[in-house]
Every structure is written in C-alpha cells, then in structure tokens.
Amino acid sequence: VVGGVVSNIESQVAEIESELKLRESEMSEEVRGKVLAAIGKARLLVSQKIQQFQGLCHKNIAGTIGEEFPTTCEDLAGFWDMVSIQVEDIKNSLKEILLLRANGWKEVSQDTTDGVDKNVTTGHARRKPAPRPSRPARSTKASIEKTEEGKTRDEARKKMLEERRKAMKEAMRAKKAEAEARQSGVDSEAPVEIFIPECK
Questions:
Q1: Which pLDDT score is estimated for 142?
Q2: Is 160 exposed, middle or buried (0-12, 13-18, 19+ CB in 10 A)?
Q3: pLDDT at position 91, please?
C-alpha cells in the first residue's frame, strides 16, 4: 500500500516538475508558488514521513528482544492515521495543480452575482438550489387542544409523584418506628449470661 502511494505521488510530482520547466513563463507568480509548494510538500512527505513509517514497520517486524520502547501495531496505526491525512492533503494539492494545468495555468475563480455562480474562466452559469419551503404552521385550535391535554397530563403526573413521595415517607416512618421498637425491646430484656468453662 505504502509503495503504491509513494510511486503515485512521485510520478505526479515528476510530471508536474517537467511541466513547470516547460511552461514556467506562462504561469503567474501565484500559480508558480502553488505548484512549487505542492511539489515541496510532496517531496517532504515521501522523503521523511513515509520513510519514517517504513522504518517503524521494519522495526515492528524485526522486534528486537529487550528493546526499551518496542514499536507496537497500535503505534503503526496511529502514525499511519497521521500520515494518511498528509497524503490526502498532497493528493488534493496535486489535483488542484492538474486543474490549473488543464485551465492553461490560470486560476479558476468563482464570481457570485445575482444568486448565480458564474465560472469566470468558462463563463458557464450555475444556479443555486432553490430554498426549501418551511413547514406549515399548526392550526391554532389543534395546538390549543394539545397544550390543554399536556397540562392535564402534567397535573396528573405531578399528583402521582406527590402520592408516591407521601407513600415513601410513610414507609420510611414505619420502618424507623419498627427499628426503634426492636431496639427498645432488646434494651428492656434481661442481660445475657455467658458461661465460661473452668479449666481443671
């Protein structure tokens, strides 16, 4: 997988570099800067991050015994997640460069006027989607009935909760009274005698 990614990026970079040498005079300063930045980022990714990842893979496979910090599969997965973000960024940059090349090394900019996006270089218009209609409002009679039903339901719920609270308080009082009665019953009984056998 890594080899395929590297070869794909390197081939695109080589193609863009050769195009840069041939067409540099046709490019504006800004376009040339974008091309050079994309090439530089791609080269750094291939020469540093991907090589570092490959080294970690080999280190994981070799698995030196007694190594203080062995490279785990989780380490590799985390590192690849980080590198794959950069790979996607490079791919997007290279796609942008290819679009610039297809457009004669001119920026493709969007100009918005009167609700219509117009591509400046091609002149083709593109309509914005129509706004979605809002939901119709509920009738007032139905909403009043719903609120009245809701009020009665809330009142019934409050009554039920209040009754449960009262029942729980009564149960707690009964348990407390029962525990006190048991405690006072134990205290009023005669003391318990303990017999210890005498040693002969």
A1: 62
A2: exposed
A3: 92
Question: Rounded to whole angstroms, what are the CA distances from 30 to 23, 34, 36, 106, 107?
Answer: 14, 6, 10, 10, 9
Regions of the chain with pLDDT less than 70: 109-145, 184-200
Please, which residues bridge with residue 125 across strands? 118
pTM above 0.90, yes or no: no
CA distances to 52, 120, 152, 164 from 157, rounded to whole Å, are: 65, 64, 9, 11
Residue labelled with tokens 């080899």: 3
41 close to 89: Cβ distance less than 8 angstroms: yes
Question: Which residues have a Cβ under 8 Å from the Cβ of 198 and sit 6 or more positions away?
Answer: none
Instruction: Give the H/E segment covering residue 43.
Output: helix 29-44
Asked whether 16 and 39 are in contact (CB, 8 A), the reply is yes
Angle made by CA atoms 82, 86, 88, in degrees to the nearest 5: 115
End-to-end, the C-alpha distance of the chain in Å comes to: 91
The Cα 58–Cα 52 span in angstroms is 10
**pLDDT tens for residues 106-138?**
887 655 444 444 444 454 455 555 565 555 555
